[in-house]
């Protein structure tokens, strides 16, 4: 499996023309690593772009609607991470309580 993909490979994978890819990169402020004058897309970059393509072309969202949807997803992901952190802290407390009860 490759670590990085060329612009042409990404366009082929996403099924979009190069100009559309360039537009999405500018509009959604996606910074792609460059090797010389060529961009090198990682798997994570391609996943982000696939989400954008799906929202716009398959689900029919506008550019602004897609930006809003991506913000909501990012916020919900942050909420999930916060919940997981809180649950891990609760688990630690419960383990300490259990260990205290078992020793008595």
UniProtKB/TrEMBL annotation:
Domain HTH merR-type: 5-72
Molecular functions per Gene Ontology: DNA binding
Entry-linked SUPFAM superfamilies: Putative DNA-binding domain (SSF46955)
Top-level taxon: Bacteria
An individual GO BP term: regulation of DNA-templated transcription
InterPro entries for the chain: DNA-bd_dom_put_sf, MerR-type_HTH_dom
Protein name per UniProt: Transcriptional regulator
């Amino acid at each position: 499996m490759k670590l990085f993909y060329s612009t042409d490979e990404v366009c082929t994978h996403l099924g979009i023309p190069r100009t559309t890819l360039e537009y999405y990169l500018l509009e959604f402020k996606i910074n792609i690593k460059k090797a010389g004058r060529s961009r090198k897309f990682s798997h994570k970059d391609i996943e982000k772009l696939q989400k954008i393509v799906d929202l716009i072309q398959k689900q029919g969202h506008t550019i602004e609607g897609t930006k809003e949807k991506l913000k909501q997803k990012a916020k919900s992901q942050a909420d999930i991470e916060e919940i997981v952190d809180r649950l891990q802290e609760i688990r630690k407390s419960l383990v300490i309580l259990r260990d205290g009860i078992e020793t008595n």
